[in-house]
């Protein structure tokens, strides 16, 4: 999955949003773990590893569902915990955030500045074992709502 960052995403509008909004589309929600809507504001903590490094980032996938429970007007999915990552990588409007999974199920994250190559390298080195996790695929981009897109990968 990838998202072109907006002024709101990188804190340029002065808003106090809780993370970046995740569209409520089947293709997008299938990427993330299922959340139990019967619970109030269910969340899942996910550990993302940088594709070009060893840093790991704990992000939260949250379904703010207060409207369903009569507690607020919110009915939206968000990915939170990105502010430190964006600050460390000097994220700017127009940069692209890539979120992925390796063939072994590891969550990956990469920020591509708007003046850099658009797709990540084809391998990721495991910090724990030193093994190379295969990411060799062909890519197809599917435009979702707004600034999000899904990149489906087929084995070469």
Automatic annotation (TrEMBL):
This is EcoRII N-terminal effector-binding domain-containing protein. Residues 3-82 form the Restriction endonuclease type II EcoRII N-terminal domain. It comes from Arthrobacter sp. K5.
């Amino acid at each position: 999955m990838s998202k072109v960052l907006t002024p709101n995403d990188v804190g340029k509008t002065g808003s106090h949003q809780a993370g970046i909004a995740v569209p409520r589309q089947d293709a997008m929600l299938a990427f993330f773990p299922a959340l139990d809507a019967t619970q109030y504001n269910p969340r899942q903590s996910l550990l993302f590893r940088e594709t070009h490094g060893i840093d790991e980032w704990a992000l939260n996938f949250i379904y703010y569902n207060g409207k369903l429970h009569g507690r607020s007007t919110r009915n939206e999915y968000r990915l939170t915990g990105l502010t430190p990552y964006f600050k460390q990588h000097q994220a700017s409007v127009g940069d692209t955030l890539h979120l992925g999974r390796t063939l072994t199920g590891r969550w990956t994250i990469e920020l591509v500045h708007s003046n850099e190559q658009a797709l990540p390298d084809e391998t990721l080195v495991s910090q724990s074992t030193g093994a190379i996790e295969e990411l060799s695929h062909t890519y197809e981009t599917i435009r979702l709502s707004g600034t999000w897109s899904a990149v489906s990968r087929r084995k070469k």
